[in-house]
Amino acid sequence: MGLFTSKKHKHLPGFKDLTKDAEIVNLANSVNKVYFPTLSPNGKPINYIVKENDYVKVGTLIGNRTDFEVPIYSSVSGTVLANETMYNPQIGRNIPYLTILSDNLFERDALLPIVSLQSSKEEIFNAIKKAGLIGMGGAGFPTYVKYQNTKGVDTLLINGVECEPFLTTDYVTMSTYPTLLLKGIELLLKASEAKEAIIVIKVHKEKVKEAIEKELPNYKNIRIVEVEDLYPMGWERALIKRVLNREYDRLPIEASCIVNNAQTVIALAKTLLTGKTLATKLITVSGDGINKNANVLCRIGTLTTDIVNALGGLVEGDVNLIPGGPMCSKAVNTTNFPILMQMDALTILKFKQRVASPCLRCGACTMHCPASLQPVELKIAYERKDIDRMEKLKIMSCVECGMCSYVCPSSIEVTDTIKKAKMIYKLKHK
Amino acid sequence: MALRTNAAPYLRSKNSTLKIMLTLTIALCIVWILAIAYSFKMDAALKESIKILNDEALQYNETFKVAISNGLKEAKELITFKPMYGLRTILVVLVSLVTTAICDILNTILRYKKGGNTTLFATIKHDLVYNYSYVTALIFALTLPAYISYYVVIIGSIFATVVVKNLFGGFGKNIFNPAAMARILVGICFTSQFDVPSMIVTLSANASSIIDATTGATLTTAFNNTMHWLGTSYSNGTSTVFNSIFNGYSMLDILFGNYLGSMGETFTIAILVIGIVLSVLKVINWRTPVFYVSTVAITAFVIALILGLDNPFSFVLYHLSLGGLMFGAVFMLTDPVTGPTSSFGKILVAIFAGFMTMLIRIKGSYPEGVVYSIALANILSCAIDYVVVGKSNDKLVLKYASLAVLLILSCITNSAVAYKVNGGKTIYYVNGIDKVQYDILSSSLTLKENDTYKPIENYEVKTDKNHISGYEYAKDKLSFAPAYEIVDKNKEKVGMAYLVSSSGSIDISGYKSEVTFTLIVAISNDGTIYGVGNLTDLTYKYGSVNSKVVDYAQNAYLGKDNSNYLTVDAFTSASYSSSIIKQAIGYAFAEFEQGGK
Known about the structure:
Oligomer: heterodimer
Structural class of chain A: alpha/beta
Mean pLDDT of chain A: 88
Strand content of chain A: 15-25%
Shape of chain B: globular
Largest sheet of chain A: 5 strands, mixed
């Protein structure tokens, strides 16, 4: 923290103990229907090649995204039904879903070609592309795109920071599958031709650290870096600045590195080494709004209602159901939506009435903004609908991390206001 | 059960504006309590003084009557006076609190719209808590002295709440710091209300040093009015100025608030500690007070260097501890509502305020440099917020450079102004010698124009007492203090000054008293005696011995006829003191002959 620059991060209460050592609830062996969205997170349509009444198996190619070359594989075996319309938390409205009625046999379709360390760079890249994986940290950026052009990449950052409160899926997955993680990293090192891979975890994650360190001597060019328990340390930009002390303008590749989520690497290793496509997903279901807190293993496309019911339902009274962590994601008004591949949590919190008081102009938001913006000034610019000033204040650098609302002593919805400001700014600059 | 879709994020820090304001209120209450303690201490001292007067009236009835006719007018009033400043310190703040509360209630009633969700009573209750006028009231009241009239407090409080705060839309919308503006208003409109009441001035002659008021002005006002916050100049014949202002106050007294002034502003050390605690608790942003105080300190230091003051550090300390600077830095300038939001803006405004504080102190005619500079900083805040765009880590070089430029500008401008105000004269600002010595040096050294003196460090008495012939002196009673070298404008030695002190009892028209007698003897190179010192009494303080006493002493020493001077002053006719003077001068002269040349 400099004299004028913001602190950029803050320690938040983690609530990780609620689920990190709890027994995993396995819902992957029994599911009624699974749903696949017909739109990508960015709103582009997905081309489904199966029709109503087609029979599919686990791993059957059912469609392709139109924006990126990402194949979609079925997560169950069963019959394709007519499209159903329901809510999509990523797009924020109701969309049609490809619906598959599961026969609960989970029969596997033909496996994908297997690669090993002896495979060439191109073979590994093609396998990554074919695996159809997207980033599991939440944004859902297709993994293969990062490895399309790896010129100049010297470092691979494996992001296991998991800085959002409540979330423990990275923690559980990393401590359960250290071998897969390291093997996946080796494959990615080859694919990227990077010199070194750094696994970044938070301090005091002894279980993860021990599990990885036990295996680490067998692998070259991989090391662990522990970072402080601060939010948003897991944000790519913050991570690269903290670990490598590099800064970039738009994409991490400008700083000669690639950042991958740890769960993505593990899923990738599983798919690449066994040929089995990803069909299940570990979800943290946590918070004081649900009767049981646990990590849930479920099929991709499982309905949230089923998961909530399996954990004893929601508590009495008003709650916020958040598909994701409590800082970045927006609460929804229905449980009727499926688990998507990039989702890693459902946070359910008791609703708290907050009454905003007048802005104190204390500058706490400016002091803490990870993107070094001035949220309070952006808020004033929004209230005046001053687009020019929004531009000057670099509104589009906002990542909506929620820090400004978190620190605001007057309970003002700063983040929400800036989201609205971004919307009107985008409309004016189309 | 319902799923709510209010705005993200769903975790919030436990910090709240109410919590911040309540912490600030507690901090202000601590300052208030310290002020109450000081006022009660002052009351006790004044009562002691009244008691002494009473006792004397009984014991030395005749003498006391003489004393009354000499200066203690309204003696009856003095003897029956009941000091109530402890109680007043409580009441002034309460009056301010009640006034702001009434203003807030009226404001809520006028703005209340029927048919809303809340009842009028609930709205009033909410506004009383969440308009935070009690913070304004506390800050404003603590910038006033305890002896101020209540109507001044009421007018100031109404102005702060109604005009500066509520007319702009209440808490969070005001452009100016309400307390600072109210203080400026009453400071301009009711200037005489800030003078120390004559009762305290008179009684302080007998009281202990905590109320050593020798003039009607407070320390701050006097420092401003007579010296423009600069050092003292001996060369223009006003050598007693600095001494008369700081008469009896050591640096510790000033740092610990042991002097008369505004209730909350004086206890610099306590406010500093509170400021540090508030910064650690994140109630205030440390940048504002640190940069404000540093700017004042650096500027004062540069001024001290440019004017060639003997002790620049104590000059800086005077600037930091007087005039409510620390109070303004911790409680007023840090008001987030009226300051910029960005860290850079906060620092810029703090440096600007420090710049203005020094400029107003040196050149302005009002002593309240701090509140004026805060008002000016408030004006600038909006403009700074408008200019500071982009990311906070952009253009760092430019930001550091602009702060440095502003700070340098402050030093240069203020030094130039100070040099001009002072008329280019050298200022002698002596510290480190004891108060009585200072008293005598500054009041009795009758130097030629442009002459000055400098203390000789580690001076040892060289006189071989047996060597002195022709003079009888009281060997046990006389003691030697440091000697001083007198230098002229070319820095050449023109003579020596010696400090000799003694104690004994004197008898003035039947009024006996223990006295401490301290004498300064200045002897030029050719042996001419220039000056002699004064007499301090345990009970009464007489003014400096006038020049005729010097002549008297000189005559006594030279064996000339002194009959012309016998009526000069009551005590000069006392046989004891005249012999002491004679002996002392002789002693000093012997010392001069021995080692001074």
